[in-house]
Amino acid sequence: MARAQTDIFTLEIIQEGLISAAEEMFHAFGRTSKSPVIYEVLDYACGLTDHKGQLIAQAAGVPGFLGTLDLAVKQTIGKFNGNIHGGDVFITNDPYGNGTHLNDITLIRPIMYKGVLVAFAVSKGHWSDVGGMHFGSWTSDSTEIYQEGLFFPVMKLYERNKPSESLIDMIRHNVRIPEMTIGDMLSQEASLRVAARRVEELCAKYGLPSMQLSFQKILASGAKLSKNALKHLPHGVFEAEDFIDDDGIHDDPIRVRIRLTVSAREFVVDLRGSSPQVSGSINASYPASLCTAKATFKAITSPHAPANEGNFRPLCLLTDPGSIFHALPPAPTSTYWETDAYVGDLMMKALAPHIPDRVGAGHFLSVCGTILGGYDERKKQPYALVEPQPGGWGATSTHDGASAQFCLGDGETLNMSTEVIEARYPIRVEQYALNTEAGAGAGKFRGGFGVVKDYRVLSREANFTASFGRSRFPPWGLSGGGAGTCNSVSILSTGAPPESRGKIAARKLRQGDMVRLATGGGGGFGPAFERDPQYVQADVRNEFLTIDQAQQIYGVVLNRETLQVDREATAVLREKQNRLRKSLAHSLN
């Protein structure tokens, strides 16, 4: 038997080799995919687990997917234990057991070396259509999982390198865009083989004993890193609550709450007491909620270190089965992000006052997912534009919030380029700009701005679906900073009054109709009248603010011709505001 090499240098080389294999898998999937939501937006994630399903390496990918990869592998091991062979590929999109919603398909390939199961290559990608009652599959008006598309419990897609033609044929005949869907499936499967080859090469170079010991050390190092980080967090119990707009079926707001218990050994996220699961599709499964808890925990404790399952050993998630954070079958889950995003947001809201150097104010929160599709008369085929939208993040104790960035759960995705949209689809992009009209949370440091995007329909007909959370409850400010602004989606139809709301399901559009996608700005940090006048002046020069807004919101007086700060008038105005604030505080006491 080969001697196990456990020195620090060998460990580092193996760890970086595993990360490199995951990243090569990521690029192989993206560069060969048929769907712009994969190759342009990067709406997928890739990773490697050990033979027990414990995450040992990952590529940069959607945070809302990465934390579920290990769960899918463990579910596969539990179901097929003793029946896992080289060349097998498993498929699953089980929201309740390992994931998110039915569009997000996980493929898993066991990696063997000399007949021994060493690891698993696993990826999860958003397929643009998996059947269901509406074009694009996910929707805001479903009331049970059966309406949302094909449901794959863990199944064998390939057995010993032989594809299951009957299963593939079933997929082909139950989706609206089979060429795109099957193309994504084949590219995803091929990318797993790339990663498998790289891991086999590492095994051949360093020997199986060294690889297995390295896996153990990687996990132990991740756990040690997180436990050390816990020592530097404030210890105690921290609480927060908020409201989700609605469930897409009823208009009633939905209460959610969190209780964090942080110690030197454990980080407990307690979501018990939140709303029961609802009629609409915003329900999040336990795996989806756990995934967001993982991503937020990692961001707070060790954001720059490589991720592995060891990092999350101190994390404990408590939920009520049958609740909005732990939905049970047959609850619909297709817009789950509207709820699971609140796991991370509530964690940050509870901790932000105590660690403002690590956590900023609230951000626009929602994936702001959209589907615009129909039949392209030019190409004689269906089309589907599926994408998330960026928005504004909250300010921190030292910086303004970031503008036009994706939400926590979608953090590694990219903008769909206007050129690709107009080349691929019968759609014209008539505006894509920062949403300065809606603004952002004011403060010593202001929130980042959202975006506004206008799509004009050029096909004869189209279907439009959107789910924009935080359309009624804006992002929260921090340390006296102002609240952010809300997300909204509008339909501007010829001859009809504008219609603006947060959720729209399978709305029929005609040629010439326009949809306007507007995402909100993040919350502010600190009192607005403490903002550096030079920063206010820069915002006016950049047309983020008007001169009147600079004076009304920030107490900064600018010369209307030169835009120079009138320091004397500014000092007088701010002093008047300070006296008013002190007087109000005194009267309240």
Strand content: 15-25%
Radius of gyration: 25 Å
What composes the largest sheet? 7 strands, antiparallel
Largest sheet strand order: 2-1-5-4-3-6-7
- The geometry reads as globular
Oligomer: single chain
> Low-confidence stretches at least 5 residues in length (pLDDT < 50)?
none
Class derived from helix and strand content? alpha+beta
Instruction: Say how many strands there are.
Output: 20
Query: What distance separates the N and C termini?
Result: 77 Å
Can you count the helices? 14
**What is the helical fraction, as a range of percent?**
25-40%
Mean pLDDT: 95
Question: What can you tell me about this protein's structure?
Answer:
By secondary structure, this protein is α+β, with helices and mostly antiparallel strands. Helix content is 32%, strand content 22%. It contains 14 helices and 20 strands. It has a seven-stranded antiparallel sheet, with helices on both faces. Strands 14-15-20-17-18 form a five-stranded antiparallel sheet. The protein has a four-stranded mixed sheet with strand order 8-9-10-11, covered by helices on one side. Helix 1 (8-32) runs antiparallel to helix 7 and helix 7 crosses helix 8. It starts with 7 loop residues before the first helix and ends with a helix.
List the defining traits of the structure above.
589 residues; alpha+beta; five-stranded antiparallel beta sheet; 14 helices; 32% helix; globular
Summarize the entry for a quick read.
This protein has helices at residues 8-32, 36-39, 63-66, 69-80, 95-98, 165-172, 178-206, 208-230, 286-301, 337-351, 418-424, 533-541, 547-554, 567-588; strands spanning 44-50, 55-58, 89-92, 104-113, 116-126, 155-159, 162-163, 236-244, 254-262, 267-270, 315-318, 369-376, 381-387, 427-434, 451-457, 461-467, 488-492, 499-501, 503-510, 514-518. It is an alpha+beta fold.
